[in-house]
Amino acid sequence: MIELINLKKQYGELVAVDGINLKVNPGEIYGFLGPNGAGKTTTIRMITGILPASSGEVLIDALSLKSQPMECKRITGYVPDRPFIYEKLKAWEFLQFVCDLYSLNRETTLNKADELLALFQLSHAKYRLIEDFSHGMKQKLVIISSLLSDPKLLVIDEPMVGLDPKGATILKALFRQLASAGKTIFLSTHTMSVAEELCDRISIIHSGKIKASGTMTELRNLGKGDENLEQIFLKITEEEVHSNAAHPLS
Amino acid sequence: MSVSEPNLILLLLRHRWLALKNSRDKKKGLQALIFIFFSLLVLFFIWYGTSRLLIKLDSLNSSEEYSTILDVAKSFVLVGNLLKERLLSMVLMAIFFMLLFSSILNALSNLFLSQDTELLIKAPVHSRRLFEARLFETVFFSSWMSFFFFAPVLFAYTQNYGVSFTKILPFLLSLIPYVIIPCSMGTIFALGLAFWFPVHKSKKVFNFLMVFFASLILILLRMLQPEKLFSIQNVSEIDQFVRNLQIPLYDSIPPTWLAKVGISILSNQTQNGIEPALYLFGWALAALSLTLFLGYRIYLPAWSSSQEVSAPSVLPVESLGYSLKLNFVRPWIRAMIFKDGLLFARNPEVWSQTFLILAMVGLYLYNLHLLGLDQVSLHSHSISRFISFLNTAFVGFITTSISMRFLFPAISLEGPAFWILKTAPITLSSLIYFKFLFWAPWILILGWFMTSTANWILAVPLEFYALNLFNISVLCIGNSMLAISMGTIFPNYRAENINKIFMSYGGTFYMICSLGFMLLYLGTQAYAGRLYYLMMVRSQEPTVQQLIWACLLILLGLVIFLAFVFVPLRWANQTLLAEEDSFL
């Protein structure tokens, strides 16, 4: 569903993403882990077409994002880490807006929107201005809007930030349901337990490069075999830090 | 062991200063220099204008033209001196009301909207000290700019009266109570408002009301036709005029007290200023005591309530787009019309600015009406045609200013929510076209309205009317597209308020380009217009060579129009595609 080929993003001298290669299969929940500033969000923005890549290619469902951006965007849903949306619209107006923006069938889509609002317990806020929403409520609304177009691929940056425990549980169940229906979910997170619990495969990115990837079992095999994801993550990223510290000019 | 409380006023001022210092962008050094240069230029013009005006008013005291008037007026006072006193009163009156309005907004902002209030309330600082610090901030930030611009006026007065700076120190001291009175009133009002209404909405409502009333004041001032003061026709009018000036209409308000203090010092009659100065200080003390009394009691409860209450929309505009259906347009266009329409309608600040623009338009047309071209019998036809052509340039300039305010920021205003459009299946170039099609018709309608009304007032013939209408259409369309393109090329997605978007390099560059476009385009049209005028009014048939030149110039005008529209548009498209702002 997603194929990143030698994907690179450079801001002047700074290389944010350094030629990464990655393949995500349909129906998979794929975790993208890394410390702050590792290049997770930049990669995600390139996958969703927000940022142009400096070089390399992004394929979504075998379509090139560069040459067929409209087709790629039509089948992709995106939830950013910061849920900035139009504060002066009401929740229901925002969902109507997204419905038209993706040229979706109004009746069926808005029925679906109603169901999702109920699922995430936001029905009471349907006609409230978004500016009055809490961070978590905005996050839920963005998640709902991303699901309206029934995307084949859902790209989510830090999905659990701001969600209450109940919201997080609902979302995790929804992810599993979507994956079993053949949808692909690509998520970045700092919460190791979420990744460990949800993801079929995981990649760990550090300093713009993928340092490790595979299933949980494959990642464990990199260490002693009985470590949890947090220990593996720390080991991989700390090794990198130590090697840099040993050679500060390298 | 007792721990002394920090001096909160100094602490907050230091914190503000550090924030200002840290926010300085070294790349913007040139911009700061330009800003300082223009500020100094403005100060110079205020000083120069006031000085000239005072000299002109002095001449009224001795002019032969008014010798008969002086005979009448001698028994009361010299007309010029009286006018100078009135002018000072008017300036101080204007500043007083500006202080009142700005202190309401500043008090709302400082007392209730500051992000550090929660932190300060939790800190081991007495709430009374916090209120005092906030009150100080309100007074300071409400007044500094007024006095920045008042300084050259005061300087011009001291020069005109030949008074040294040290002699006006008591006047400067009297400015303190003069500032405290409106700021206390504003703070009390803001406290009450926040106590009863949710403050997040109140500020927007007040922004709206302030501009609305400012527009009204502007219209009223213009309707008074102050130019008539300088075109007095006969003695009886002057007699009445002096009597009117001497009516003590506003004797019991702080600006008049301060003006009296000022005039008494300037005219070396200090004893006349003691009584008004006592009034000023007395009332300031009373206002300050009342503010502190109320603030100590109301501030914390009002702040708490402002954190809890949620109010309905200020301007409720329900289902604007979807009640219209708009089934004939593509769904994404419908979505954008709906979104941009609602965001506009729910923002009271843009409504207030719309009122201000309408007031300006009204004043412009009223001024045109006052030109009284019907009284210029000899060349009235030539003049009215010439003015109608000039009017097109003026209207073009007005629409440029409006485009800068509404169209230039159109793409930047997508701001942090731009990701929604960037990840949607729409092309970014179509977004630029949408913004143009959404806004340009309003600019065009305004241009047509102003041109039509002006041409009607000037009574120009139909063919000139049509020519002017065509020209203004080209200018409005060109300027609108230029504004959208330039706003895309020089975006500011991180701007906290809209002013920061257009008051920038990009905004200045747009103004320069737009003026260049209008100058070049109208320049190419002027020649053909002149030939036509000579043919119709003076019966001078144009030569073939002149006609060829006219056609070539008209064609050149078209090329200029297309160049100013499509070159920036292409650049804008490329900029948008390559946009890498990490904020988005």
Mean pLDDT of chain B: 78
Q: How are helices and strands ordered from N to C of chain B?
A: HHHHHHHHHHHHHHHHHHHHH
Tell me the radius of gyration of chain B: 29 Å
Give the number of helices of chain A: 9
- Helical fraction of chain B equals over 70%
> In which order are the strands of the major sheet of chain A placed?
6-7-8-3-9-10
Shape of chain A: globular
List the helices and strands and how they pair.
The complex is a heterodimer of chains A (250) and B (584).
Chain A: E1 2-11, E2 14-24, E3 29-33, H1 40-47, E4 55-60, E5 63-64, H2 69-74, E6 76-79, H3 91-101, H4 106-119, H5 135-147, E7 153-157, H6 165-180, E8 184-189, H7 192-198, E9 201-206, E10 209-214, H8 216-222, H9 229-246
Parallel strand pairs in A: 3-8, 3-9, 6-7, 7-8
Antiparallel strand pairs in A: 1-2, 1-4, 4-5, 9-10
Helix pairs in contact in A: 3-4
Chain B: H1 8-22, H2 29-62, H3 67-73, H4 79-113, H5 117-122, H6 127-161, H7 169-196, H8 199-223, H9 235-246, H10 254-266, H11 271-308, H12 320-324, H13 331-345, H14 348-370, H15 380-406, H16 418-422, H17 428-458, H18 462-489, H19 498-502, H20 505-537, H21 544-577
Helix pairs in contact in B: 1-6, 2-4, 2-6, 3-9, 4-6, 4-7, 4-8, 4-10, 6-7, 6-11, 7-10, 7-11, 8-14, 10-11, 14-17, 15-17, 15-18, 15-20, 17-18, 18-20, 18-21, 20-21
Structure description:
The complex is a heterodimer of chains A (250) and B (584). In chain A, helix 3 packs across helix 4. Chain A has helices at 40-47, 69-74, 91-101, 106-119, 135-147, 165-180, 192-198, 216-222, 229-246, and strands at residues 2-11, 14-24, 29-33, 55-60, 63-64, 76-79, 153-157, 184-189, 201-206, 209-214. With 250 residues, chain A is an alpha/beta fold. Chain A has a 6-stranded mixed β-sheet, with helices on both faces. Chain A is built from 9 helices and 10 strands. Chain A is globular, with a radius of gyration of 19 Å. By secondary structure, chain B is mainly α. The radius of gyration of chain B is 29 Å and the shape is globular. Mean pLDDT of chain B is 78; it is low at 309-317. The chains are: A alpha/beta (250), B mainly alpha (584).
